[in-house]
Structures are given as structure tokens and as C-alpha cells.
Amino acid sequence: MAEADRRSGAEPGARASGTGAATRRDRLLRLGAPQVAATALTATVALYMTLVAFGNITDFGTNQQFVQHVLSMDTTFEDPDLMWRAVESPALQNAAYVAVIVWETLAALVLLAATWFWLSGLRRQAYERARAASTVGLVMVLLLFGAGFLAIGGEWFAMWQSSDWNGLDAAFRNVALAALTLLVVHLPGVRRSGTEET
Fold first, then answer.
1. N or C: which end of the chain has fewer CB within 10 A?
2. CB-based burial label for 109 (10 Å; 0-12, 13-18, 19+)
3. Is 12 left (phi over 0), alpha (psi -120 to 50) or beta?
4. Looking at per-residue confidence, does 152 or 19 come out higher?
């Protein structure tokens, strides 16, 4: 050790104290890395989707009413030119609601797996599997709330006309969160090593 210190021009023993400071600095750099942001955001969406799916499974009736009213279009302006779109069959309404719950549950599971892959990747500095899983789960969320609620529910079934059963604001928030997370997951910096300095 003393020989190594002499070769580096450092005082004997100075290397050990400098190593501690460098380690702390490296840890701070890792905490500020884009990969950590991607991990935190993916975990947030995973938690949210898990709670949404859990709530719909354990409190089936509350959002069942929401789906029934949206599909039957009974709280819209009831414009005759639009009402032919209404789905009034309880069996079809319930099938649509169950399909939503299944989709939410699958998205939650994929995002939970993605969170685990991110956490593992932070230790090994390997992020491809985490990025791929996050992308699948986040696109599932975008399809559910973007295509499902904003487009189909909001426009096709005219949910925007309802003052009682209008879920457009909540759907837009979910789309925004998933889209932001997807952007962070695919930032160029996320592909680099968590300890790389620029």
C-alpha cells in the first residue's frame, strides 16, 4: 500500500480517506442518474395500477356503475343522432368492465416486474430488460386510458356530455403520467452506465 501511495504521489494513508469521499460522491451521482428516475416513475405507475386493479376487484360495484352509465349513455344529452351507439345490455356492460379489470391487472403485473428489473439493473448497470418491460406496461396504460377512456368512452360514447359520470380528467392524468414515464425510460442517458460522468 505504501509503495502504491509513493507511486501515485500521495501521502501514505491519504488514499484510504479519499476512497470514502469518492464512494459517497459515487453514491450521490448514482442517486441523480436517469436510471433512478426511470425506476421511481415506473414504480409509481406500477403502484397506482396495482391499487386501481385491487380497488376494482374488491369494490366491484362502484366502477361497474360508471361503466354501465357510460356505455348506456343515459346521462348524456341523449342526442338521437348519437344514441344508436349506446350499449344497453347488462351482460355486455359487465363483460366490458371485467375486460378493463383484467387489462389493469396485467398492466400492473408487467409494471411490477419492470420495477424489479430496474432495481436489479441498478446493481448490475443493465437496463435493457427493465426498459422493455416498462415500455410494454406503460403502453398498456396508454391504450387503456387513452384509447379506451379518452377516445372510446369520451368521444364514441360521448362521456364528455355527462356531468355525473365523466372520467376524462382522471383518464388524462393517467395518460400524462404514463407518457412522461415512457419518455424518461427512453431518455438517451438511461442507456448509459449509472456511474458514467459527462
1. C
2. middle
3. beta
4. 152
